[in-house]
Each structure stands twice: as C-alpha cells, then as structure tokens.
C-alpha cells in the first residue's frame, strides 16, 4: 500500500546599452558583497557575505538550501514563507533563511549540500554542527519543529489539576514520569519530545502524580482518547531509555488499532514505517461489508507494531489505490497483506473473514509459507514486432533471461515525469538497435506488472541483462541519452572511463532534487 507515488527582455533588467547594463551589474555585485540582511516574504536572503552575521544575530536559524530550477523548492516556498511569518508573529527566537546553493557554491560545499531542498538548523551561532531538519515539509510542520527547539520541549506538570487539564487537552498526549528530571532518562525523553512534534509532551516528578496515575517507577505514558485509552512504557532501570525505540513505540501506539485510509490519515499510515500492512477493502455503503470490520479489529491487537491494519473504502478515497493492487470496486470485500520493503502483495482466500482466519493467514505470510500474488498485464499482440519490445510479468523471464540476447529494459510508470522525459530517447534507442540480432531494447510498466525476484523501487529503473548463463543483471545509473546508452551497450554493459555527463536541472520526486541527475533522478515508489 505504497501511495505516495509522486510530486509533481534583457537578463539584468537594464536596457540594451552597455553602460546601463554594466551599472546594473555593478549595483548587484555591491549588494552581494554587503553583509546586510534582507528579507523576501519574511525569509532572510543569505549569502556568503552575510551568513555569519545572520548566525550571530539569530539564536535559532533554519536555513533552506535551494536551487531556483528545483520544482520541490518552488512548491516549498509558500509554506516556508508562511512558517517564517507565523514564527515572527509569535515573537519566537526562531527565524528562517534561504540560500541559493547554485549561486553560493562556497556555502553549499561547506555544508555538504547534495540535493534540494536541504534544510539545516543553526543554533547559537554554531556553523560547524548544524542539525538536519527532520520535520514535515509544510508550514505547520516547520513551525512545530522550530517551536520545540525554541522553548521547552515538555511542559512541567506540578499537580494533579494541571496534569488532568494537560492530559485531556488533546487526543494524544505523552507524559514522562521521572523521579529525577535532571537525570539521563529524562534528558533522553526531552530529545524524543524535540523530534515527535505532533504530540504534546509533559513531565512529572512529584510523588503525588506518581500515585495519582498508579506508578512506582520511571514510566512514559501515552494518553489517547481512543482504543485502550492509555499505554505505558516502563523504563528499564539498567538500560535506561532508548531514544529511537521510544520514538517508534510512540509512533506505533499513536495510531488507532485499525486505521481508515483517508486523505487526512495517509501521512500517518506511511510515516510510521510498520513493515507490513494488512488491508481490508470494503464498500462502505454496504452494511454487510462494514460488519466484517469486527473480525478484522479482533485480529489486529496480536500484531501491533509488526502489522498495521487498514480499511480502504473502494468507493471513497481508496478508489485511487485500487490499480496498485490490480483491483476494481467489484472485488470488495477482499483482504491483502503488503510487505512494505518490496511491495509484495499476498491475497487471503475469501472463505472466512473471522479473526482466527486472519491471524492464521498473517502468521503464515510472516513465516514465509505463502507466495506473493504477482500482477501481470496481457501482452499486446504486436509486443515483439516493435523496436522497443513491450514486456509484461508473464513474458519477462523468457525475454530478459534469453541466453542468446543482451536485453536492456526500462521499468517505468505511466504517470512518472522522468519516464516521460526519456521516452523519446528510449524509442530512438530501439530504432537504432532493432536490426541487431543479439541486442533487445524493451520496457515494462511496473505499475501493472510484478516480478518475483526483482523489486523496482523508483522510476525509471534501467536494468541490463547480458547474454549467457547465470541470470546476471546490471543496473544502469548514468545519463539518459541515446549516445550514452549506446556506449553502454557497445561496451558490453559498462561505460568506458570518461567524465560523466551532468544534467543541469534534473528533478528527483522523493521530495528533494538531485543536482547530479543520476539514478536518484527518478520517481520513488
């Protein structure tokens, strides 16, 4: 259930008179040399001459390193500006700034900028150890992330009334009960609080509060207004509190035992990184199908943290994901388990939707006793007569692993902008080699076809299958143009040693853009 499929006059302004254009250039150069701090939409415009001043004047400075051509940077800009305005209106210590990394190459090199946008937090003027931004790339996410670093990450709860008010204030609240708020365990808790910004955090150390909530030892409690209402995570007195472990536990248990897939919940579902998703597809307008949720929910508790249970309404928001499973609304009700690391899908037989049957099926999948269900389209009638051969799941093996052929395959998605951009080059490559007996140029739509032993993580992915025994496979990771493709083929599946071709403005739809434009310049699943 991987649904995040994709994002997607005179130069200087003077008249065409030498003297005026030169004057404009001189004025611009004078502006760049100055250490004056200027703003655009509330965001500080930074460069190598004013960067040190900005760090000295602002205790917390979040800097976006961007490229003007970067589509993701352009989409982030309004949210970044909105966050800057919000923080300023709150009289926060936090400020936002931006650096054009394509123009300020010295700063880009100093801070190791390799993709756009990259956000880094500078604290107390320290430019040697900036903190990587780990929050959401929207205005609210940026503001919350900065607020946690500008003020206390957790609220001190001093008595039962304050604690009760705090705990009832939101649907999810985290409270750390520690006998020593200055000890290592509490400090680790504060570190978690700085990262998990979508839940309020509180701390308590009074005996009164320990007693009120039935505790005798250091414990982190997650209070929630759904499911079991409260989940306790006792602190191991010998091992202490592990930041990564507690963060994941809070993420897992902050979700409902059974999540309904909607536009509002999709980010939660995929950000928690639970390794398997068990999905009940149903038609919400059918009372009989809605009743199947009872057995589904009853099975969920035994697999918490290992398998996330999700319901998908095939007539609502979930209709958009049906093609990923090769399904139509008429297939509901039905169950699928997805292994998230490789998108393998497992289909449960529809004999029973009972909790016992569901638990048994899941355990058999986890134990490796069930084979995945692989999708395959039907091959077009002329699939083998085109310059670019059209492969599907059921024909892939016989073509790609033909020991008499060298086969170069493009794995693509119809919606992928990077695939569309290289389509003409791939067709030209097919025309160039259509009469070669031992070279085959092919392509496969990986949204409609799946392979048992090959997992495609992003689009386009290019694999070369050389002739001969051994079922060898070589991933192509260089420039996507006909001449470079040809050199690769003529050289037996490798490129001769020479300086790489670097595209000027490739986009990488993982949410950041890669200035190198190699294998990362593709849409990720």
From TrEMBL:
<dbReference type="GO" id="GO:0003756">
    <property type="term" value="F:protein disulfide isomerase activity"/>
</dbReference>
<feature type="disulfide bond" description="Redox-active">
    <location>
        <begin position="416"/>
        <end position="419"/>
    </location>
</feature>
<dbReference type="Pfam" id="PF00085">
    <property type="entry name" value="Thioredoxin"/>
</dbReference>
<keyword id="KW-0413">Isomerase</keyword>
<keyword id="KW-0732">Signal</keyword>
<keyword id="KW-0676">Redox-active center</keyword>
<keyword id="KW-0143">Chaperone</keyword>
<keyword id="KW-1015">Disulfide bond</keyword>
<protein>
    <recommendedName>
        <fullName>protein disulfide-isomerase</fullName>
        <ecNumber>5.3.4.1</ecNumber>
    </recommendedName>
</protein>
<dbReference type="GO" id="GO:0006457">
    <property type="term" value="P:protein folding"/>
</dbReference>
<dbReference type="GO" id="GO:0005788">
    <property type="term" value="C:endoplasmic reticulum lumen"/>
</dbReference>
<feature type="disulfide bond" description="Redox-active">
    <location>
        <begin position="70"/>
        <end position="73"/>
    </location>
</feature>
<feature type="region of interest" description="Disordered">
    <location>
        <begin position="490"/>
        <end position="525"/>
    </location>
</feature>
<dbReference type="InterPro" id="IPR017937">
    <property type="entry name" value="Thioredoxin_CS"/>
</dbReference>
<dbReference type="InterPro" id="IPR013766">
    <property type="entry name" value="Thioredoxin_domain"/>
</dbReference>
<dbReference type="GO" id="GO:0034976">
    <property type="term" value="P:response to endoplasmic reticulum stress"/>
</dbReference>
<dbReference type="InterPro" id="IPR005792">
    <property type="entry name" value="Prot_disulphide_isomerase"/>
</dbReference>
<dbReference type="Pfam" id="PF13848">
    <property type="entry name" value="Thioredoxin_6"/>
</dbReference>
<feature type="domain" description="Thioredoxin">
    <location>
        <begin position="3"/>
        <end position="151"/>
    </location>
</feature>
<feature type="domain" description="Thioredoxin">
    <location>
        <begin position="365"/>
        <end position="494"/>
    </location>
</feature>
<keyword id="KW-0256">Endoplasmic reticulum</keyword>
<keyword id="KW-0677">Repeat</keyword>
<comment type="similarity">
    <text>Belongs to the protein disulfide isomerase family.</text>
</comment>
<dbReference type="InterPro" id="IPR036249">
    <property type="entry name" value="Thioredoxin-like_sf"/>
</dbReference>
């Amino acid at each position: 259930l991987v649904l995040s499929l994709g994002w997607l006059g005179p130069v200087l302004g003077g008249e065409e008179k030498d003297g005026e254009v030169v004057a404009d250039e001189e004025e611009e150069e004078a502006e760049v040399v100055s250490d004056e701090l200027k703003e655009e939409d509330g965001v500080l415009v930074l460069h190598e001459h004013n960067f040190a001043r900005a760090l000295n004047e602002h205790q917390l400075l979040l800097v976006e390193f961007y490229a003007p051509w970067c589509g993701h940077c352009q989409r982030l800009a309004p949210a970044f500006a909105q966050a800057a305005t919000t923080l300023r209106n709150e009289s926060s210590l936090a400020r936002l700034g931006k650096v054009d990394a394509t123009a300020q190459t010295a700063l880009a090199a100093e801070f190791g900028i390799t993709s756009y946008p990259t956000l880094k937090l500078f604290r107390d003027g320290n430019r040697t150890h900036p903190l990587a931004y780990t929050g959401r790339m929207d205005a609210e996410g940026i503001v919350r992330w900065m607020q946690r670093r500008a003020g206390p990450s957790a609220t001190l709860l001093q008595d039962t009334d304050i604690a009760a008010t705090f705990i009832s204030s939101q649907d999810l609240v985290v409270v750390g009960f520690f006998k020593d708020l200055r000890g290592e365990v509490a400090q680790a808790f504060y570190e978690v609080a700085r990262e998990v910004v979508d839940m309020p955090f509180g701390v308590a150390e009074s005996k009164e509060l320990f007693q009120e909530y039935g505790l005798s030892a250091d414990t982190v409690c997650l209070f929630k207004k759904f499911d079991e209402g409260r989940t306790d995570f006792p602190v191991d007195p010998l091992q202490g509190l592990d930041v990564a472990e507690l963060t994941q536990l809070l993420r897992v248990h902050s979700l409902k035992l059974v999540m309904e897939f909607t536009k509002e919940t999709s980010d939660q579902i995929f950000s928690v990184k639970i390794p398997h998703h068990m999905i009940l597809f149903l038609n919400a307008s059918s009372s009989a199908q809605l009743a199947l949720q009872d057995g589904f929910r009853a099975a969920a508790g035994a697999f918490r943290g290992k398998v996330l249970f999700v319901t998908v309404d095939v007539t609502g928001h979930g209709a958009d994901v049906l093609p990923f499973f090769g399904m139509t609304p008429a297939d509901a009700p039905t169950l699928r388990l997805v292994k998230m690391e490789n998108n393998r899908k497992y289909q449960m037989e529809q004999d029973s939707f009972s909790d016992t049957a569901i638990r048994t099926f899941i355990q058999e999948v986890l134990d490796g006793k069930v084979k995945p269900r692989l999708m395959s389209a039907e091959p077009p009638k002329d699939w083998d007569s085109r310059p670019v051969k059209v492969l599907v799941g059921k024909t892939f093996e016989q073509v790609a692993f033909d020991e008499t052929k060298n086969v170069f395959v493009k794995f693509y998605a119809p919606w992928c902008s990077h695939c569309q951009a290289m389509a003409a080059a791939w067709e030209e490559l097919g025309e160039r080699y259509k009469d070669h007996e031992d070279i085959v140029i092919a392509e496969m739509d990986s949204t409609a076809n799946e392979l048992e032993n090959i997992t495609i993580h992003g689009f386009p992915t290019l694999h070369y299958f050389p002739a001969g025994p051994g079922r060898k496979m070589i991933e192509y990771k260089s420039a996507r143009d006909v001449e470079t493709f040809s050199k690769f083929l003529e050289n037996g599946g490798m490129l001769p040693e020479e300086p790489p071709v670097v595209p000027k403005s490739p986009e990488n739809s993982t949410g950041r853009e890669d200035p190198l434009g190699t294998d990362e310049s593709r849409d990720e699943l």
